[in-house]
Specification:
Strands 12, 13, 14, 15, 16, 17, 18 and 19 form an 8-stranded mixed beta sheet that branches. Strands 9-8-7-10-11 form a 5-stranded mixed beta sheet, sandwiched between helices. A 3-stranded antiparallel beta sheet has the order 2-1-3. The radius of gyration is 31 Å and the shape is flat. The protein is α+β, with helices and mostly antiparallel strands and 650 residues long. The chain has 21 helices and 19 strands. The chain has 5 domains: 9-92, GIY-YIG endonuclease; 108-247, no CATH class; 258-394, Nucleotidyltransferase, domain 5; 420-562, UvrC, RNAse H endonuclease domain (Nucleotidyltransferase, domain 5); 581-649, 5' to 3' exonuclease, C-terminal subdomain (DNA polymerase, domain 1).
Length: 650
């Protein structure tokens, strides 16, 4: 946890009062010289001075109290300040700024321009194919593509048509009715085009027409007692209905393309919901939750209505307490496509709106406008987005409250003075005396922070010594507290080890020698490898009667074990060759790797019984029998060859 900072408030007020009343960017730093917030203003003196006078909301108070000094850069125009602000946010990633994902290109669904078109995911619009999107991520795209392939029988293989028609046997998907069978010549180019036209219609939002056509086919097949075909139609109908629900089909009479941005807020959190409307339907949506460490702002429609006339030039919507412009600019910095109209559920002062429109227009290469609809279909879209933001906001709040209760219970049980904001967990995994690996996971701000996960290849011991391994891992980790790696530079509030009192003693000694007072506890498992209790270096602390806390510790223990074992296996797999095992019927690369990891060598696999092999993860009894038979046949074949050789020699 960052130590409390006592800043020189008079010095900061005096420095702020000396700033020019010109556009520019200000950079707030803490006592360690780290950039904690970047903002822009049309009047540097007025904006920066506000942080050190009067009262603010919780987030602004927290940021301002951490400021030890600030720098500033004067810009020629407010547009220059807006662009520089976002460049500096990307460079420094300050903890109190709104940080959106920085993706150079968002993914699209592409219908290729081939004789037999395919539906694929792409990040570039480069030729004459049909494009749908962009989407917020690849997950939603692969879900849609999979549904279309399964529903309409579109091939999912890597064959090229018409070149590969008739060259090989149809795959299992054709046999179970999941593919229309282009490879077998079951459909010609004209018939296939009708299937693709149906897929394009669905992508444009006409799911009802596709459902109606499938229902007709289902009833016809049922009347002719083709019940398997009718069942497939039924399953396709259900899949399309689920897809329609996920895509939240709207009924915009005129179609059109819009992005809709809505905000919801409380004293502790903010949530922004963004709907992406393409061809009159909500093709995708994103939600952004900003917690207590990120400053953002929200103004309701009613508040906008009563804002005093003539104050458009004030800093009320500037990128300090209410950085709406910063959020919108950040949102579109990572997107290739910007629609002509962006709908806002809230109002913005005309000067701030004009500034953002100017930036987006330059980025899009054509006119982009922001507007807040008052009534009609477009207002309904804004209300939908606003309701979506509220739902996600409330859902986040429920989870946050539950997390806070668990952390409070943990702090109370362990006798901690503060709630642990950053928890680091460690585990050791090995294969005998080889591939000794220490894994570190991080639980921060109520969730697993996978970007901060690390692993250590242990070098100080060549034997299976958990204590020496844990000692080395923690020494290496704590030595990085003053380093340049941002994820390592933050001191943990609590260290949890997958081990007992001896492990705790070893790590506490490492912390003490480093001059650190970090609470260290062990997570002990029972004989069934399940979480039993938490231990210090002197006592056991029971958590059996606190089910939420028990489940939380279990979740941490399982996650660090999963991560550590995975890294250890990855190291082992680099040294293994599996091609010989893959000759066995039913054994592919994944099963071959599991066999080698569990058994240790091909020789041990060859001599194992079916019972021993079937105990290996992913290996069924049928697989085990196939492995036993393969090596038995191999031995018999070798014996026969030797006998033939001996006979010839005689």
């Amino acid at each position: 946890m960052e130590k409390p900072i006592v800043n020189n408030i008079e010095f900061l007020r005096s420095k702020a009062a000396s700033l020019p009343r010109l556009p520019g960017v200000y950079i707030m730093e803490n006592r360690a010289g780290e950039v904690i917030y970047v903002g822009k203003s049309r009047s540097l003196r007025d904006r920066v001075s506000q942080y050190f006078h009067g009262s603010h909301d919780i987030k602004t108070e927290k940021m301002a109290s951490s400021v030890n000094n600030f720098r500033f850069i004067v810009c020629n125009t407010e547009m220059d300040a807006l662009i520089l602000e976002n460049d500096l946010i990307k460079k420094h990633t300050p903890r109190y700024n709104i940080l959106l994902k920085d993706s150079k290109s968002y993914p699209y669904i592409k219908v290729t321009n081939d004789p037999f078109p395919r539906i694929v995911m792409t990040r570039k619009k480069s030729d004459g194919g049909k494009y749908f999107g962009p989407y917020s991520g690849t997950g939603v795209i692969f879900d849609i593509i999979s549904t279309l392939e399964r529903t309409l029988g579109i091939p999912s293989c890597k064959r090229s048509f018409p070149k590969d028609i008739g060259k090989s046997r149809p795959c299992v998907y054709r046999q179970i009715g999941r593919c229309c069978g282009v490879c077998a010549g079951d459909v010609d180019e004209a018939e296939y085009k009708k299937i693709i036209d149906c897929a394009v219609s669905i992508l444009r939002g006409n799911i009802k027409d596709a459902v109606r056509e499938l229902e007709e086919r289902m009833y016809l097949a049922s009347s002719r007692e083709r019940f398997e075909e009718a069942a497939r139609c039924r399953d396709s109908i259900e899949a399309l209905k689920k897809l329609a629900e996920k895509r939240k089909v709207t009924s915009l009479s005129a179609g059109g393309e819009y992005d809709v941005i809505a905000l919801a807020s409380s004293a502790e959190n903010r949530c922004a919901a963004v709907f992406y409307i393409r061809d009159g339907i909500i093709s995708d949506s994103e939600q952004f939750i900003f917690g207590a460490d990120e400053i953002t702002g929200y103004i309701t429609k009613n508040e906008a209505d009563v804002s005093p006339v003539g104050q458009e030039n004030s800093d009320v919507f500037d990128s300090g307490d209410f950085p709406l412009s910063a959020f919108i600019v950040n949102l579109y910095m990572g997107r290739e496509y910007i629609p002509k109209e962006i709908l806002l559920s809230f109002d913005m002062p005309s000067s701030e709106r004009a500034l953002v429109e100017e930036y987006l227009t330059k980025r899009a290469g054509r006119r982009v406008t922001l507007k807040t609809p008052i009534k009609g279909e477009l207002r309904r879209l804004c209300d939908m987005a606003e309701n979506d933001a509220v739902r996600h906001f409330e859902s986040r709040k429920v989870r946050a409250d539950a997390n806070e209760r668990v952390l409070a219970s943990l702090a109370s049980s362990l006798g901690l003075e503060v709630l642990p904001e950053r928890i680091e967990c460690y585990d050791i995994s090995n294969l005998g005396d080889e591939f000794i690996t220490a894994g570190m996971i991080v639980f921060e701000d109520g969730k697993f922070k996978k970007s901060d996960y690390r692993y250590f290849r242990i070098k100080s011991t060549e034997t299976n010594d958990d204590y020496a391994s844990m000692r080395e891992a923690l020494k290496r980790r704590l030595s990085e507290l003053a380093g340049k790696d941002e994820s390592f530079s933050r001191e943990p509030d609590l260290i949890l080890l997958d081990g007992g009192t001896s492990h705790v003693s070893v790590v506490r000694e490492v912390c003490q020698r480093a001059g650190l007072e970090i609470p260290v506890f062990g997570m002990v498992k029972d004989s069934h490898h399940k979480t039993r209790t938490i231990v210090s270096d002197a006592e056991e602390i029971s958590i059996a009667n606190d089910m939420p806390l028990f489940q939380f510790i279990y979740k941490l223990q399982e996650e660090v074990h999963r991560f550590t074992v995975g890294k250890m296996k990855a190291a082992k797999l680099k040294t293994l060759k599996t091609s010989g095992l893959e000759k066995i019927k039913g054994i592919g690369p994944a099963k071959a790797k599991e066999l080698l990891l569990s058994m240790g060598s091909v020789q041990k696999i060859a001599s194992a019984t079916a019972e021993e092999l079937s105990a290996v993860p992913k290996i069924s009894r049928a697989d085990a029998d196939a492995v036993v038979k393969y090596f038995a046949d191999k031995r018999a074949n070798t014996a026969d060859k030797k006998a033939d050789k001996d006979k010839k020699e005689k």
